[in-house]
Q: What sequence folds into this?
């Protein structure tokens, strides 16, 4: 069996122990004589999986009672549209803090449905930092930000206190660290980076938001529909939710989010320190104060050297180190399931590559 050092940006690494557990239960799930994929979503064995995933999300993230945990489909991209459909009120703008392409996409969808405003942006600086200083609006429907910018490798270190409900796209750093859920009115994330395979989108939403939501939209697009039906309004992505439940169990075994956060910090520092010590051979994209612990972005001196780096790293068993197609360069995504040893091996390879090509 061959497993690579998987630095994919998403879908991304899944803990080996989780894959093995899924493999061992694949054909006969807990004596049911069938796979989880073959169970009815209305059956007791599946409902146990479903409810356990939701309960473990609550436990690990310390989600207060007044929030709902929903399992939806359509990825974060559907959330870009669902959030304004439900919460953008006429004559009351949605405010956006712009930190990259994903914020732009969220803004573009909201702009189709109502009034929007940009209250902060680092676009003019090629999204090299998160725009922490913005005017906190007192009127409007909500404030939206992207907690981790997968493409640029920037991350909010602390979150702003806003007067309006705060909505966050946490697709690429959910459960990578401890956060105070009560600071947010809605958090959303596709599972395929830190939570398991693609197919399920986690939404954590304050119940009072649902009470005041727009009513004139199709049922499937209303958060209230899914909350009333325990995310079983229609057939959920049962296998993805099962995998999520295994990943959450694994997180608990690792010591929960505090332990995971500490390890993520160490993993990222190993690679950043290699960049910083390289005397300019490797150049980080993000400003130091905004550096992401999830996505580490860098370039080399020129295109030729970058290509050689990507080629040699692939030959040495590293996957997914190419940067996003929109900015090029290199990117190492060190999500929760990427082991410390993979980051150490990458730093070692980077040092060796520099010696060879200097
Ligand atoms: C921060 C962020 N938001 C949104 C998305 C889009 O997610 P999806 O493909 O699940 O719609 C991505 C995908 O990489 C992302 O990194």
A:
């Amino acid at each position: 069996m061959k497993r690579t050092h998987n630095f994919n940006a998403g879908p991304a690494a899944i803990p080996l122990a989780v894959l093995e557990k899924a493999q061992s239960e694949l054909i006969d799930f807990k004596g049911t004589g069938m796979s989880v994929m073959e169970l009815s979503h209305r059956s007791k064995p599946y409902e146990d999986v479903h409810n356990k995933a939701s309960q473990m999300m609550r436990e690990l993230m310390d989600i207060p009672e007044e929030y709902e945990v929903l399992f939806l489909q359509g990825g974060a991209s559907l959330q870009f549209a669902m959030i304004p459909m439900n919460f953008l009120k006429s004559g009351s703008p949605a405010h956006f803090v712009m930190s990259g392409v994903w914020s732009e996409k969220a803004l573009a969808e909201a702009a189709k449905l109502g009034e929007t405003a940009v209250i902060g942006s680092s676009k003019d600086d090629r999204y090299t930092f998160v725009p922490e200083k913005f005017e906190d609006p007192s009127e409007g429907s909500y404030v939206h930000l992207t907690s981790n910018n997968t493409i640029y490798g920037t991350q909010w270190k602390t979150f702003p206190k806003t007067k309006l409900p705060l909505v966050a796209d946490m697709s690429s750093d959910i459960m990578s660290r401890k956060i105070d859920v009560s600071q947010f009115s809605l958090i959303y994330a596709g599972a395929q980076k830190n939570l398991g395979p693609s197919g399920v989108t986690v939404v954590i939403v304050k119940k009072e938001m649902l009470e005041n939501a727009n009513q004139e939209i199709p049922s499937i697009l209303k958060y209230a529909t899914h909350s009333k039906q325990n995310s079983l309004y229609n057939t959920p992505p049962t296998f993805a939710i099962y995998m999520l439940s295994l990943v959450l169990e694994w997180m608990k075994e690792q010591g929960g989010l505090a332990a995971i956060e500490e390890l993520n910090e160490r993993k990222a520092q190993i690679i950043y320190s290699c960049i910083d010590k390289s005397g300019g051979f490797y150049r980080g994209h993000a400003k130091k104060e905004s550096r992401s612990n999830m996505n580490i972005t860098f370039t080399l001196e020129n295109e030729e050297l970058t290509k050689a780096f990507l080629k040699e790293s692939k030959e040495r068993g590293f996957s997914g180190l190419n940067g996003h197609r929109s900015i090029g360069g290199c990117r190492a995504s060190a999500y929760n399931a990427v082991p410390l040893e993979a980051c150490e091996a990458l730093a070692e390879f980077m040092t060796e590559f520099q010696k060879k090509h200097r």
